[in-house]
Amino acid sequence: MFGLAIIGILLNGFGVILLKKGQSLNEKVLSWHLLEDVLGWIAILFGSIGIYFWDLYVLDPIMTLGLTIFILYNVLKNLRETVNILLQGVPRHISLVEVKKDLLAIRKVLGIHDVHIWSLDGETDIFTGHLIIEIEDFETPDKIRNKIKMVLLKHHIEHSTIELERKGFCSGFECTD
Q: How confident is the model over 11-21, as a mean pLDDT?
């Protein structure tokens, strides 16, 4: 048990160090899994020492319960973020109200509707939305689209799909003129 515990600690510890800098949900979950493995191997190491030298067989179920409680706590803590990503909810670090307010503050943006903000992996945030602009701005859509993208970058939204609509015409159900 002692020898296997040392090998497990070294190999899983190396994996934790490699993945520690990851920001995506996949990297975080894998890093936590490897950390839990390291803690499990540490429990086995201490358990093997206690059983070998002092015949403390009760250490095995005590450490198993402790590790199980630690794992369940972290699963529940990360479950909320995972479910939010799977359901394409607005990421916690983004305020939908603030994004809309900042977009409406752009000169010549008259309205906004059908806005959706979500994350693919907990790292890359995505925006889709319809923005109503003045008719004369249809001649230079890239200019206003770039202003919109700059506002979105301020909110850490790296990818966007923007549909520009002229005043008086709306392709969605929640149109505001």
A: 89
